[in-house]
């Protein structure tokens, strides 16, 4: 049996393979939704601590504002959105009851800004596992997705990308 060299593979087949490869890196929940969620990940829990942090980036690509009303993480007693703020010359974490995304706005949840704070872990968050994240928006509705747990922010090729379903 003869072997096929890479140079003998026709261009349409290469394009098809590339498309399927990209589909594995980015998962769009729905192409109609204006809300895009990029790079979600949760820090692994540290032994002896009952809390952890989570991060992602939200973009409202639509023409109407939308508000993030609720966040839940599987196996976590309570999840809150927090923000680091300078209060009396000291950096403090302050709860944010809800987050409004203006049209065309991107908000990044990152270690030194907005972030998720996960309290009352039912079990440790181990690197390599995935936990279900549930977000409830005023207009976009509810979305659930699996988010990786890691020691550090995943590399670009490992980051999931999601579009929230239209309501």
From TrEMBL:
Organism, as annotated: Candidatus Lambdaproteobacteria bacterium RIFOXYD2_FULL_56_26
PANTHER family (UniProt xref): BLR7088 PROTEIN, COPPER CHAPERONE PCU(A)C
The protein, known as: Copper chaperone PCu(A)C
InterPro entries given in the database record: LpqE-like, Lxx211020-like, PCuAC_sf
């Amino acid at each position: 049996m003869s072997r096929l060299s890479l140079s003998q593979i026709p261009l349409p087949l290469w394009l098809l393979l590339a498309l399927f490869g990209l589909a594995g890196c980015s998962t769009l929940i729905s192409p109609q939704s204006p809300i895009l969620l990029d790079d979600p990940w949760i820090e692994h829990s540290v032994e002896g601590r009952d809390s952890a942090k989570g991060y992602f980036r939200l973009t409202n690509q639509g023409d109407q504002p939308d508000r993030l009303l609720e966040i839940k993480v599987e196996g976590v007693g309570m999840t809150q959105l927090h923000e680091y703020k300078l209060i009396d010359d000291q950096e403090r974490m302050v709860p944010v009851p809800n987050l409004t995304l203006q049209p065309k706005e991107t908000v990044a949840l990152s270690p030194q800004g907005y972030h998720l704070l996960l309290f009352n872990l039912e079990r440790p968050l181990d690197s390599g596992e995935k936990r279900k994240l549930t977000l409830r928006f005023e207009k976009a509705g509810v979305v659930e997705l699996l988010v990786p747990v890691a020691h550090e922010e995943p590399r670009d090729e490992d980051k999931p990308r999601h579009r929230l379903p239209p309501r």
